[in-house]
Amino acid sequence: MYKVKIIVVCGSGVAMAMHAAFKLREALEKEKLYVHIDGTGNNELASRIAAYDMVVSNAQVLVKTDKPVFSAIPLITGVGEKELLEKIIAKVREIQTAKNGN
Amino acid sequence: MINHDETVDFAIDEELILVKESVQTREEIIQKLGGLLFKNGFVKDSYTQAVLQREITYPTGLPARMAGVAVPHTDTDHVLKPAIAIANLAEPVTFFMMGSPETEVKVEIVIMLAVHDAKLVIPVLRKVIFILEDDEALLKIKNASTKTEIKNAMVEHIQSLSAKGK
C-alpha cells in the first residue's frame, strides 16, 4: 500500500504545527490510514514540496502548487475540525488509490 | 520568587498573569506580558521585541469556540526558562489570524509562550494548546476576575489531560 506523504508547515516554528501533525496522525490512524508526515518551516516549503502529496499548514502558503493544501488551524482550535478531517481522509484515500494504480 | 508548578514543568504563576487588563492594542498587551516574563527572569530583554516582530509576519490569533485567543511567541533564542504568561482582557483587541494574515480575530485571552526548546516542551505545550478546545476551561479564563481563577483553570486543564494520559 502506498504511503501518502504529507508535509506540515509551521510559520512559527515553535510547536503549533507539531501539535496539529500529532492530531492529524492520530485521526488518520483511527481510519487505518498510515501516512508519512514531515514538518518544515515556511521558508523551506518551496524546495521540499516536490517530494510530497499534500500540504497542511498553519501559515499562509505562498508557494504555487497543484497539490492539495489544507489549513492546520481547525486542528488547533477544534472549530471545523471534523469537516477538515473528512476532507483530508477522503483526499488521502484518493491519492492512495491513484498511486496503487487501482 | 516564582514557584514552579512541578506537575506542569512550565512556570504558570500569578506573577505572570494579568486579569481584566485594559489595553487598546495587541502591541500593548504583548509588551505587558513580555515585561512580566522579563522581570521574572524567564526571557532575555530581546524577547518582547522579537515577539512583536513575529506577530507581524506570523500572526497568532485563533478563533476558538468560546473565545478569541492569541498565542504570541518567538524563537527559542530569546528564552531562558519555559513559562506561559496569561491575560484576559477587559475589552477585546484585534489580532490577525494564524495562517490568514488578512483575517481579524477579536481576542479576549492572550497566552504568551516562552519556549526555550521546542522538542523538550512539546508534551506540556500541547496540553496548553489543547485548552483552545476545552470549552469549560476557556470560559473560566475568559470570565475570571482574579489571577487565581486563571491559574487554577489552566493548571486544572493540564492536570485533567495528564490524568487521561494525553
List the topology elements:
The complex is a heterodimer of chains A (102) and B (166).
Chain A lengths: L4 E6 L5 H15 L5 E6 L3 H4 L5 E4 L11 E3 L1 H5 L3 H20 L2
Parallel strand pairs in A: 1-2, 1-3, 3-4
Chain B lengths: L16 E5 L4 H14 L7 H11 L3 E3 L4 E3 L12 E15 L2 E15 L3 H12 L5 H9 L3 H17 L3
Instruction: Name the chain pair whose interface involves the most residues.
Output: A-B, 21 and 28 residues
Radius of gyration of chain B: 14 Å
* Termini gap of chain A: 11 Å
Query: Order of strands across the biggest sheet of chain A?
Result: 2-1-3-4
Query: CATH homologous superfamily name of chain B?
Result: Mannitol-specific EII, Chain A
- Total domain modules of chain A: 1
Descriptive report:
The complex is a heterodimer of chains A (102) and B (166). Chain A is α/β, with parallel strands linked by helices and 102 residues long. Chain A has a single domain, classed as Response regulator (Rossmann fold). In chain A, 43% of the residues lie in helices and 19% in strands. Chain A is built from 4 helices and 4 strands; from the N terminus they run E-H-E-H-E-E-H-H. Chain A has helices at 16-30, 45-48, 73-77, 81-100; strands at 5-10, 36-41, 54-57, 69-71. Chain A has a 4-stranded parallel β-sheet. Chain A is globular, with a radius of gyration of 13 Å. The N and C termini of chain A lie close together (11 Å). The model of chain A has no long low-confidence stretch (mean pLDDT 92). Chain B has a single domain, classed as Mannitol-specific EII, Chain A, CATH 3.40.930. In chain B, 49% of the residues are buried. The model of chain B is unreliable at 1-8 (pLDDT under 50). Chain B starts with 16 loop residues before the first strand and ends with a helix. Classes of the chains: A alpha/beta (102), B alpha/beta (166).
